[in-house]
Design goal:
heterodimer, A: mainly beta, ten-stranded antiparallel β-sheet, two-stranded antiparallel sheet, 1 helix, 12 strands, globular, disordered N terminus, B: mainly beta, 16-stranded antiparallel β-barrel, 3 helices
């Protein structure tokens, strides 16, 4: 069952509206490695909730697909998905600016990312745009260092990946 | 009879020899060659990761999921030498055997058919700290000798051939490689179809067109490049025929499965192989690889050809083009087709060609391939049918 969440829309002054759970979601993680290797993994599973004044984004990690089954398995092992099945980002709702219809907003928001059982402060750059139909299209990006979360940098058959991981999240929200 | 012999010679030249690189691996997001190959611009030796990918991505899967990302794949055995032997990371052996059977037809009539020994090479790549070296040595039958790569020079019997051997040092944390020796000329697509017009017109096929020189290559996540100072092919005698100059390319990744590049080559010889006059040969071109849909990869290259006969004021210009589609409906099974064109100073008529065939990567490190090549524009139309079995370590 899709949960319906509420949020406050801040447009110039404080304009309130409710937010549905996200649609058209895409989470893209990009890694770089030895000799120009670039790995991209995607999942479309994204859950958004509001708790205690925070917007809480959750991504089940088992669904990330890198295009190769064995590589997916290695990723799940590196992230210890059996013990830490999801990544969670909490951002104070009041720190997020929502644009007026036909307008866009772009800013940085400070939050807390929990990954591999470790929570760290995290800065997210986002851009939100509200269409005339009331739908918001949002893109958020951040970069995390897997070592900060106690994740061992993967290495496989002589190929190493760098500890820095770029994360890009796209989703849509619609007024009820 | 003499005319038939000439056509046989031409057609033999058109398909003989073999080596391999798979630019279509871009469909899996591998825009870089150095991830799997010890040559940063692709081809020949595979590193351990590359051997594993040949099992995971390249060859047919039996009884498993049809797509690479479905299900949990087992650890590949092909990452190990001969499928079972773990090797030290500093030692990467290689071996290649390619055998074919060819039929050549001129104006619809078969004029030649025979077995074709295409490749029988052994080699090794060493990596000790930042130091690298690679060498391969092969046997070539009298008819199959790639003349520009021969080490011995029998005109009637088999020969030893050495396509590449070089030593170098890694730079930029392993992303760069500075090396010297006999090296593949960095230019355009490193496509397997080494007899395609783009490869023969630019003399950059990697069956035999390697040359001696110093090269620097770098592979970054969003681009790769290699430049080479060409010091002459020592398999060519006398020295006056050896080309000296420079060549290079740069390729940018414009997405996970799309890349676009540009190449340039300028080389001077005291005596051209065709005119025997002092000649400056230049080639400039662009190329691209794109996989808009995972089963499909398109490759395109277009090159401008310039040849100046030094001191005479004579300049010939021409061009060569290639458009190839590779469709992989089932993992390991490829259906491919290509169209090509070429016009050069020595062959002023526009030559056209069409390629089609099937390619099946039956098991890891074993593939079979069937080609049909039709060409027009230089005398009567020619048709070549070639089936080949390839095995590599």
């Amino acid at each position: 069952m899709r949960s319906i969440l509420t949020a406050v829309l801040l447009v110039g002054g404080l304009v309130q509206a409710a937010i549905l759970s996200p649609s058209r979601s895409s989470v893209l993680v990009s890694l770089q490695g030895t000799a120009g290797l670039r790995i991209e993994g995607t999942t479309h599973d994204l859950v958004l909730a509001e708790r205690e004044g925070d917007l809480v984004f959750q991504v089940p990690l088992s669904g990330i697909d890198t295009g190769i089954g064995l590589r997916n398995k290695h990723l799940r092992n590196a992230l210890e998905v059996a013990h830490f099945p999801q990544a969670e980002l909490r951002v104070p709702r009041k720190s997020v600016v929502f644009p007026a219809p036909g307008k866009s907003a772009e800013a940085d928001a400070q939050g807390t990312l929990t990954l591999h059982g470790v929570s760290r402060p995290c800065s997210v750059h986002y851009r939100a745009e509200q269409g005339s139909s009331g739908e918001y299209r949002v893109r958020g990006t951040t970069r995390v260092d897997m070592r900060d979360f106690g994740i061992e940098t993967p290495s496989y058959l002589g190929i190493h990946v760098e500890p820095g991981v770029d994360v890009q999240v796209d989703f849509s929200l619609r007024d009820p | 009879m003499k005319r038939v012999r000439w056509w046989v010679l031409l057609l033999t030249w058109a398909v003989a020899g073999s080596a391999h690189a798979y630019p279509f691996m871009i469909r899996h997001g591998y825009t870089q060659c150095a991830t799997c190959h010890t040559d940063p611009s692709g081809g020949t030796f595979l590193n351990e990761y590359g051997r594993a990918q040949s099992e995971l991505l390249l060859s047919s899967s039996y009884g498993g999921s049809s797509t690479e990302s479905e299900g949990d794949q087992d650890e590949p055995t092909a990452g190990r030498f001969l499928g079972f032997l773990p090797l030290p990371s500093w030692f990467r052996p290689g071996g290649w055997v390619r055998q074919g059977y060819i039929w050549n037809a001129v104006d619809g009539k078969i004029v030649d058919r025979r077995s074709l020994q295409m490749r029988a090479d052994l080699g090794a790549d060493l990596k000790v700290g930042p130091f690298r070296a690679a060498a391969e040595l092969g046997y070539a039958s009298a008819e199959g000798t790639p003349r520009l790569a021969q080490i011995t020079h029998s005109t009637t019997g088999p020969n030893l051939v050495g396509r590449e051997f070089w030593a170098g040092v890694e730079t930029f944390g392993g992303d760069g490689l500075l090396r010297a020796g006999r090296i593949n000329v960095p230019f355009g697509l490193r496509n397997l179809e080494h007899t395609s017009f783009i490869r023969t017109a630019t003399r950059t096929d990697f069956n035999e067109d390697q040359t001696y020189g110093v090269a620097f290559a770098i592979s970054r996540p969003r681009w790769r490049a290699e430049v080479m100072a060409m010091l002459g092919n020592l398999s060519v005698h006398p020295d006056a025929y050896r080309e000296r100059g420079a060549a290079g390319y740069v390729e940018l990744s414009v997405g996970p499965t799309a890349a676009i590049g540009a190449s340039a080559l300028a080389a001077r010889a005291e005596a051209s192989l065709t005119t025997r006059k002092p000649t400056l040969r230049q080639a400039y071109g662009g190329f691209a690889r794109v996989s808009p849909w995972r089963p499909l990869v398109l490759q395109i290259e277009g090159d401008l050809l310039l040849e100046n006969q030094l001191g005479s004021g004579i300049q010939d210009s021409g061009h060569a083009e290639w458009l190839q589609a590779d469709l992989e409906p089932l993992r390991g099974l490829h259906v491919f087709g290509a169209v090509e064109g070429m016009k050069t100073g020595t062959t002023p008529e526009l030559q056209r060609g069409a390629w089609g065939g099937l390619w099946w990567f039956v098991f890891p490190h074993v593939d079979i391939r069937a080609d049909a090549v039709q060409r027009w524009g230089q005398g009567p139309p020619t048709t070549t049918f070639l089936v080949q079995l390839n095995g590599y370590l």
